[in-house]
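Deliverable D4.2, example record:
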Amino acid sequence: MIIPLLEEIGKLWESGKIRVTHEHFAVSVLRTFLGSLIDNNLNPPNSPKILATTPEGFLHELGALIAALYAMDFGWNAIFLGANLPAEEISAAARANDVNAILLSFVYPEDDPRAGKQLRKLRKYVGHDMHILISGQSAIGYLKYIE
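Output generated by the structure prediction step:
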């Protein structure tokens, strides 16, 4: 229900039927609501942990937040860090929280030249034993950087 709503908001904004302020307000309300769901996690403390965020240059965080909620539905404890984090910060947070996986959301842009470098750095920092998952409508364009 949330994803179609976000798509509709995007279409309304693109068509000029709503203003940027309307879009930002709607996203703010959704972020607060979805964040409260993460705060009310009912999974056992010893469940596997996943860290969800967007890499540097990616400002649309709701995809990461929604993916974190999906992970919780499958028994994971999710840590949501928001948007636009450099590889160094993601890896530091992953180590500090002893996570089992990192989930990155790529919504827009589809071809950020920094993303490949950031993904290679992240892999170097966390090693090959850490699972790095990517999601979002632009994820396919970044698969080539995931080892």
